[in-house]
Amino acid sequence: xxxxxxxxxxxxxxxxxxxxxxxxxxxxxxxxxxxxxxxxxxxxxxxxxxxxxxxxxxxxxxxxxxxxxxxxxxxxxxxxxxxxxxxxxxxxxxxxxxxxxxxxxxxxxxxxxxxxxxxxxxxxxxxxxxxxxxxxxxxxxxxxxxxxxxxxxxxxxxxxxxxxxxxxxxxxxxxxxxxxxxxxxxxxxxxxxxxxxxxxxxxxxxxxxxxxxxx
Amino acid sequence: xxxxxxxxxxxxxxxxxxxxxxxxxxxxxxxxxxxxxxxxxxxxxxxxxxxxxxxxxxxxxxxxxxxxxxxxxxxxxxxxxxxxxxxxxxxxxxxxxxxxxxxxxxxxxxxxxxxxxxxxxxxxxxxxxxxxxxxxxxxxxxxxxxxxxxxxxxxxxxxxxxxxxxxxxxxxxxxxxxxxxxxxxxxxxxxxxxxxxxxxxxxxxxxxxxxxxxxxxxxxxxxxxxxxxxxxxxxxxxxxxxxxxxxxxxxxxxxxxxxxxxxxxxxxxxxxxxxxxxxxxxxxxxxxxxxxxxxxxxxxxxxxxxxxxxxxxxxxxxxxxxxxxxxxxxxxxxxxxxxxxxxxxxxxxxxxxxxxxxxxxxxxxxxxxxxxxxxxxxxxxxxxxxxxxxxxxxxxxxxxxxxxxxxxxxxxxxxxxxxxxxxxxxxxxxxxxxxxxxxxxxxxxxxxxxxxxxxxxxxxxxxxxxxxxxxxxxxxxxxxxxxxxxxxxxxxxxxxxxxxxxxxxx
Lengths: 215, 506
Known about the structure:
The complex is a heterodimer.
Chain A: H1 2-25, H2 51-63, E1 72-73, E2 77-78, H3 79-83, H4 109-130, E3 143-144, E4 147-148, H5 153-166, H6 173-187, H7 194-207, H8 210-213
Antiparallel strand pairs in A: 1-2, 3-4
Helix pairs in contact in A: 2-4, 4-7, 5-6, 5-7, 6-7
Chain B: H1 3-10, H2 14-31, H3 42-45, E1 56-60, E2 94-96, E3 103-109, E4 119-122, H4 123-130, E5 134-140, H5 146-155, H6 165-173, E6 181-183, E7 205-206, H7 229-246, H8 248-253, H9 257-275, H10 278-281, H11 304-310, H12 318-331, E8 337-340, E9 347-349, E10 353-356, H13 364-392, E11 394-396, E12 399-400, E13 405-409, E14 414-415, E15 430-431, E16 433-439, E17 447-449, E18 451-452, E19 459-462, E20 469-470, H14 477-487
Parallel strand pairs in B: 1-8, 1-13, 5-17, 6-7, 6-8
Antiparallel strand pairs in B: 2-3, 3-4, 5-16, 9-10, 11-12, 13-16, 14-15, 18-19, 19-20
Helix pairs in contact in B: 2-7, 12-13
């Protein structure tokens, strides 16, 4: 009886090992096939809109601009601290009695964001293109007659700098490809200065992305 | 094939090319499983019938407590056994308006309390002119704290899950409007409601400066030396259609309600605002060294000259700018509800013109009679001009905008009824007992619903169905709220709100 029980235990262990060995050799039927993107969605998905001050500060830092040069309306009115304060999630405790930021972005928030980012990107692009030797982002670009040699590595480097300064990460190959294609699309129009237009708009596309605006 | 046509074949037309790119990017977005940027999901979520004609709501907030017994329900000395201890007026200052239950206070003072500015008011002109569209609803509210009371005047003290009147109107009629609910209010009047089921597009769009706000309604107009708008569209399409949805950030947080709202707002909603050229249509301010509009490429509204004529101080007087913008928002079908309001900041123009007293109606803490008189004058004067404008603008088929508008004078609360020794200048605190002025061709006009006891200064209520005065009841905030929504034709089915036919015309 005792020997019989021992035998059964040995058989059970052997079967367990065998099953285990088989399992490790092939994926379980429900596993994602190799190369398929995994579901990385956060169930909590807690993000916040940056709001007027963070937006201004982050753009100033990313684009190397003094805070007051990030955006003005009519040449003198600060966008994020005066004209679009509430729209961009700020408060107006004294004038409006609005002591808390809006709980939600409003219908005109995306427009205000586009204006602010466009202004700041124009500043950066024009400064870089006017003084390529000291360019912060658009350095070493090969521009002839207003046209950009878009396939040169310097373009990828400029895009990478945009991402690193704005989003604090390198650009992916797909993102570099998309922004190169943006240039080709611009050049295919009758733009008189496609390189400059691209420099402004590539910056705009990245700096007004959700990854830049929410945290 | 000619040389030109050959050239054209090689080089796509700019507009066609860009349209193709934008369409491809949009289609790519759809294929990737993201919401289409062209379809506005409002219709599916709106509660209203899309074919119904809208009724517009203008909330004219009167912060600080607009006391109804300092206007339409004023009491004469000779009518009160307690006139020495009660907020009553010398008989000659209370005007009975012919063929109307309303009274009006016409008075003249050398100063507004300690402020040495002269004051002359003639409420009787306003009341005589508009009495048929005026209705006073007496009420007893529930808070003596400004911001709380202000919000309750809009939610009926959370009568409908915390939904504001403006949100209810926006949901009912505003699905096809670019910015259904615009709000230039103050403190509690500019707050959103608390009903979480109200869709984002029906919540209020706060406006801090009525003069400058329209200039921000286009993402590139007025910014110098930018790429052409068509090229900007290319960049936006790339961002919205590829960079954003493919990013690890978005794929990680795509379940966020905030990001989904952002996608919706940045898609069809944004394009609709820009395509309607609201940046021009709503721009009523004149070109000047302070506002060099032309230099920056801004165009003026076709109505700018008229607005500047009717509101000549709109650059210096925020309430004039608000009233002008309110009219334009309704005229150009941008909003179905607009809120305007003086703030607690005084407005003083050259020539010793005190437009808004410090703390608005709340200056009654210092000088009740003069503060109320000055602020009622301010309120009625602005309402008069706004109503005239709305009457002058056709809605359709011979109806004016005014024929379809309700003007609700929301206020925080009433004021204390007592004074000492028949003083002409006295201070008052807050009191929940008061009443609201509502104006519209749709209301039970030329009526006071309820009444006032001349010996206490306290208002009493009315039968909600017949409108007969009832000295044994007071009107609750929820009843006023329900009655207003019903005047506006907003469906309140399932809300549990009472029926208040007494507030409706006919």
